[in-house]
Amino acid sequence: MLLRTLLLSTALIFAPFTQAEIYKWVDERGNVHYSDEKPATAPMVETIHPHTDKMGVQLTQPASAEQWKQDALQPPASAAQPAAAPSSRTRSVNADYQQQDWCEGVVANCFTEQQDYVCKLRYGRECQDIYHWKVCLHQHCTDNRLADKCESPFYFLDKRPNMLGRRDLGRPLPMKEWVSAQDWACLATHGFFCDEVAFEADCQEHYRQSCAELKNWVSTAQERCISARDGDCKDIDSLIRYRPAPVEEVKKAGTMNASGRVITQDQLLQSLGVHKNDPADVGKLQSTLEAITGLNIDKHRRTFDCERRWP
């Protein structure tokens, strides 16, 4: 009844015997949208079938979609565990965490062991590797006097770490200070934002696994590690060898075909309709670059110790 009340409060109708289709897309500025009306102009639209416990939700106003997502994912409120506040990921991609250097003035790795643990769950890499990838790539470009590439957002997106893709558009680096308590609990358990493992269709499409498998991958990885005697199976650096990688990451890293040739596919650039470095695409590529996880480029930033991690 609580879920129904929440849905009705956001202009939604509960229809017990129908299953709604919800459409998800990313606009040219990297903002994620949800609607029950399929957009006519979006380059790539995902169709979401709500999880079994949310079947029958029918959106009546496209503007209610984001509120629907937040409300539907809230756990029941109780005195012992109040419902979490909406995630901070809905903030503008130009928020402070994308602009101000979290590590300014800090010697060595500026992220804590707990923060790096969560980053490794999600990306298989330390937070600093993911956080500084844009500025380090820019520094490498500048040091090697690749002037034409240093000003090209296509170059940066093309050379980004393989694990960064459409799922990271508009989302902050998974720091406890930047996400809701609910999302932090999900991230610290299995490396996913809560909504990423809420819909079975999404889990199957993006990971070829069920949401239940993704939520329990850490314990499964420990079992596999122990069975294979693959090092210290309590250590995160052993477990991330079994990390479930999204299909998009696998395709960007490249797969080998029958003839031994490595075939790569960049679904992020394809979703933008971009296949080469074309000056006409600079606008939408720049906004996408700024929207994706990681500290944004500032030519006046201090020099980083990037050699060990990038490129």
Distance, first to last CA:
52 Å
Count of DSSP strands: 7
The best one-word shape is globular
Helix and strand content put the structural class at: mainly alpha
Oligomeric state: single chain
Q: Taking strands numbered 1, 2, ... along the chain, how are they ordered across the largest sheet?
A: 3-2-4
User: What sequence of helices (H) and strands (E) makes up the elements?
Assistant: HEEEEEHHHHHHHHHHHHHEEHH
Q: Which spans of ≥5 residues are poorly predicted at pLDDT below 50?
A: 1-19, 51-65, 71-94
Number of domain units: 2
Largest sheet: 3 strands, antiparallel
Computed over alpha carbons, the radius of gyration is 20 Å
**Strand residues, percent:** 5-15%
Fraction of residues in helices? 25-40%
Number of H/I helices: 16
- Determine the mean pLDDT: 77
Question: How would you explain this protein's 3D organization?
Answer:
- The protein has helices at about 1-10, 65-70, 95-100, 115-125, 125-130, 135-145, 145-150, 155-160, 180-190, 200-205, 210-215, 215-230, 235-240, 245-255, 265-270, 280-290; strands at about 10-15, 20-25, 30-35, 45-50, 55-60, 255, 260-265.
- The chain has about 300 residues and is mostly helical.
- It folds into two domains: about 1-70, no CATH class; about 110-290, no CATH class.
- Strands 3-2-4 form a three-stranded antiparallel β-sheet.
- A hairpin with a 5-residue loop joins strand 6 and strand 7 (about 260-265).
- The chain is globular and about 50 Å long.
- The N and C termini lie far apart (about 50 Å).
- Residues about 1-20, about 50-65 and about 70-95 have low confidence and may be disordered.
